[in-house]
Structures are given as C-alpha cells and as structure tokens.
Amino acid sequence: MKQKYLILKKGDQNEVVVQEFAELEKDSFSLLCEEKYDLSRIKGAIETGRGALISTLRTQNMYPIGYYAEKIADSVRDIMFSADKESVELTFDDMELLAKIPAKEWEIREEEIEEEPSEIDELLEEEIEDDYEKDVFDNYQSVVKVADEDVLEADEES
User: Fold this and answer.
1) What is the pLDDT of residues 135-150, one digit of tens each?
2) For the chain, how many structural domains are there in total?
3) What is the pTM of this model?
4) What's the CA gap between 22 and 24, in Å, rounded?
5) Is 70 helix (H, G, I), strand (E, B) or coil?
6) Cα 84 vs. chain centroid, distance in angstroms?
7) Are 38 and 27 in contact (CB under 8 A)?
C-alpha cells in the first residue's frame, strides 16, 4: 500500500497539521486522518528528543510504523526550524520498504521459539477435576416457559 503524509506548519493558527493519505484506488489518495498539534507542544517535544517527538506525533488515530514515524518526525523538526518551508509531503510504499529488509530477517530463528508451553497451553492441557456436586441441577426449574403450540409451529416450518 502506498501512503502519503502532508505536514503543514500554520504559524498564524499556532499549530502543526499532519494529514495521512492512503492509495485506496490506483493513483488516487484518500484522506484517512488529520491531526493538529499545538506549536509549543511540538517545540517542547523537539527539545526533549526524537523519541519524544515521535510519541507526541503518534495518536490513537494515526500510529505510523517506526520507519515512517522517524521520517515524519525528522520532517516536522525540519519544518519547525525552517523560516521559508510551510509544508512537506512524504510518500511511502510498503512494497519498497519490505524489499529493503533482508530475507534472513524474515526467517524465524530457533532461539526465539519458546521451549516450554505458555500458561494458556498449560491450562488447555490440564485435567478438569470432578469434585463438583452433580445433583445441584436436579431441582432446577427454568424461568422461561415455552408454549407447546410454539414448538409445534417451529417444527412445521422446518
């Protein structure tokens, strides 16, 4: 999938706007999300460091992968320190990104596989104890009564 991020510095409104687009149809990008950030909040995050800026830019609605988030953060930092730059457009293609990753990184390494079963597996394998009282339901009476006529009508429709 291809994605595009448009970063706008709106000094008159004291905000930075990040718009996320995706190519849902060939050669046509659709707006997925728009997030607005206060300039002072962005400046504070830049002063704290790249990680803080990435954390500030990521939201519940817009959470780009690490590589994209780093590029977006770098562009936000550049636009903040530039007097003449008011917008930046970034375009990403997931297929190009995947092609850059060496094939050996996609293979499962044996040392990463757990030797012992996880807790959920242990729960599934355990025996169920039969120490409950079996006669608890002997005197149980249902609160819901089904009319004999309803049962007959349902059988006839089948």
Assistant:
1) 666 776 666 666 666 5
2) 1
3) 0.63
4) 6
5) helix
6) 34
7) no
